[in-house]
Amino acid sequence: MNANLLAQSALSGLFSGGLYALLGLGLSLSWRFLRIINLSHFAMIFLAAYLTYQCTAIWKINPYLVPLFLIPLFFVVAALQQLAIIRFGIDEFGSIVATFGVTIVVEALLQLIWSADFLRLETDHLKGSMVLGSLLVPWADAFMFMCAVTTCVGAWGLLRFTYIGKALRANVENPAIASIFGVQSRRLSLLVAGSAGGLAAFGGVFIALLFALTPSQMYSWFGVIFATVIMGGLGSPLGVLVAGLLVGVSESFAMALVAPSWAPIVPFTLMVSLLTLRPGRI
Amino acid sequence: MLRLEGVEIAYGDAPALFDVSVHVDRGELVAIVGPNGAGKTTLVNAIARLLPFRKGSMHFQGTDVTKISPQAMGAHGIAVIPEGRRLFTQMTVEENLDMGCYRRNSRAFRDQSLAEVYALFPILRERRHQISGTMSGGQQQMVAIARALMSRPEVLLIDEPSLGLAPIMVSQVFEIIQKIHRGGMSILLIEQNVNKSLDVAERAYVLDCGRLIAEGAPSELRSRPEIAGAYLGHASP
What we know:
The structure holds two protein chains of two kinds.
Chain A (H helix, E strand, L loop, with lengths): L2 H32 L5 H19 L7 H22 L4 H23 L14 E4 L2 E4 H23 L1 H11 L1 H6 L4 H26 L11 H11 L4 H21 L7 H13 L5
Antiparallel strand pairs in A: 1-2
Chain B lengths: L1 E10 L2 E11 L4 E5 L6 H8 L7 E6 L2 E2 L5 H7 L1 E4 L11 H8 L3 H4 L2 H11 L1 H5 L10 H14 L4 E5 L7 H16 L3 E6 L2 H7 L2 E6 L2 E6 L1 H6 L1 H7 L6
Parallel strand pairs in B: 3-8, 3-9, 6-7, 7-8
Antiparallel strand pairs in B: 1-2, 1-4, 4-5, 9-10
């Protein structure tokens, strides 16, 4: 095992870790602040990925413009879903079932429109790699990583320093007292759900950019993303980022040092050990 | 300033307050005292509009506020210091204070309010970055009072400030309440500690089993044998 290969696999682990964090952030926020385990987050990510494909590959829209309208669109859709969840009084466990239903519907829809065949987005943007010493750094991954880190740090800053962030944290701890001080929990919940939807759209753009698409692929993300979210501590953007990077790098090392088939075992071993050692974190 | 008339509250079918009429005038410190289970906290929650009235009405500065939401009640200028303090325990002291001035109209005065409450509670300035849940009971009570003051209220509603505090802290908290009152604040103090409350209040109500059984100046209530015997821990003469 040479050092160069190890460094290269650490780098690719960091990149996948960044993507895990970006995809997990919305899930983590809605779980913590809405008490909703939103499985349809994955469906939203894939819907956004397919829409990105459609806009970029078929309609030839500049891919940098795609998030500008996908994110607001998904914000609205997710907020509407949250309105329905409030309207029907769906609780934390009910939300798993309800949003799984949405996931299946969306998956069927994707198959209907784009078929189950693999689609690969070919674009001239972010093509190729830069060479950094002995390392090969793909532009697309590097750009995605930058966006993921910025998003997580930005979300942390919003929660930590703004009135809305403080209101969210106060509301989740004691809604009655928070309401006395003027916190309007319904409005906030729509904001959180919408932001999670926007994050799904943002993540979806990168899924389209980095992977070949097929609808059933969405389920393969469940395990690793949930492991990331749970390890990161619910509602903690920096936690999600660190957990994502930890999972990504350790997976990558397992692949390089042992065998690629060992990769899935890593996040779950990490998650189970963490839950055993520090069960109070959730 | 704050006036409740003929208020009746029930939890489902179980009535908790019967025909309660209470008022607080501007700049007054009024105490509502009574034993455990008398309905004191129910009354606080009703005034904070967390519980609906079954009968009766509430007016604040001449406006009918019988049917408004807790958010709107706070916006009218009533700040609640709830029983058991109910801080946002995972947030820092200063973040709790920021929640006190969450509303736009009080947010504009944040720096000024913060300077005022830190002058009142210098310890909170020292500890402003501490997670509030890790503080002692007395300090948490200070945070709760400070948080309410941050909203720049017209009336302070203080529910059981002495609950779970060491005797020396209880005296301190009552001193602080008096100090705030001398600054011109109208205060409704709900307490189980009857003697301490009557020491600071200008007027008091005695609540028992969901009914008001007496009202008057503290000295007058103390001189009434049935009150003194039952609620003040003195033997009847």
